Amino acid sequence: SAGTLIRVFDGIYTENIIVNQSLTLRSYDADPSNCTIRAASTSSHVVQVMSPGVTVEGLTLTGGWDPYQSSGVLINASDNCAVYNCVINSCIYGVWIQSSSNASVGNNVITNITYYAVLVSVANKADVFGNRVSGCPDGLSAWGGGVYDTTFRQNNVTGGEVGIWIYNAQRSNVTGNTVSNATIYGIKVDSAVNTTTVTDNYLRNNANNTFGKGNSTWDHNFYSDYSGVDSNRDGIGDTPYSILGGISQDMRPIVPVVQATGGGDNTLILAGGAVAAVAVAVVAFLLLHGRKK
After folding, report:
1. How far is 65 from 164, CA to CA, in rounded Å?
2. Contact at 8 Å (CB) between 40 and 59?
3. What DSSP line would sit under 136-203, residue for residue?
4. What DSSP character marks residue 286?
5. Helices H, strands E: what count in the chain?
6. What is the pTM assigned to this prediction?
7. Tens digits of per-residue pLDDT, 97-117?
8. Nearest-angstrom CA–CA distance, 208 and 120
9. What is the pLDDT of residues 232-274, one digit of tens each?
């Protein structure tokens, strides 16, 4: 019945699941390492959500290999659905949200995906947060003119071709993410009519940290290739960072400030809260620049 909690005992299950009523599908102890669902038919989604109010939680989902449609979780024409604390791998798409509103995708580990780790298409108000993504050509994407008010926040995306890609989607918010080692772009905002806001992100060692078109706003991000200085040591660069591909500039690029402590160690300070992943920023900066003693 609607609102039911289904707890799946530990084990490995080979099947394709279609959820057509409001419920929560969760591993018994909410630990994805103990409960795996492998697609019986590799040409179908591992879990297909076709009802509002569905939550998928604490599962390992794998094996959807159809070259055109298979995903770990498809949320299709279903509002107020969520995917939490799952491990998703070896699929064409990780989580695919289409024709749905108020989807929430959080704290998942998504690896070895053929196309998009999380794809938002023809959807409104998707909230994608706290996910760890690696080994995916395209990490997180809001794709198409029918996409509005997507939020990508506090995700960690490493490797692949493009870390976060906004294409034609409207009013997207990209904030507090760490994106590193992408082979083409770290964050790409691609549309002349785009109204994306990109703030407080940490962009490190991507082939190109940025690409931006249209009315996108970039503010208070860290760029590993920023060549400006911070003469007053307030954590903000003296000169803007120019975004590749258009006329946008970040007028407040973050410059980490290193201060010597009494014990001879270095303390890294990021002005104004800087990025959400402060610990990641600190470790990465010290690795890049060395730690003097």
Report:
1. 23
2. no
3. -SEEEEEESTT-BS-EEES-EEESSSEEEEEEB-BS-EEES-EEE--SSEEEEEE-TT---EEES-EE
4. H
5. 1, 33
6. 0.89
7. 999 999 999 999 999 999 999
8. 23
9. 999 999 999 999 988 899 999 999 876 544 555 544 555 444 4
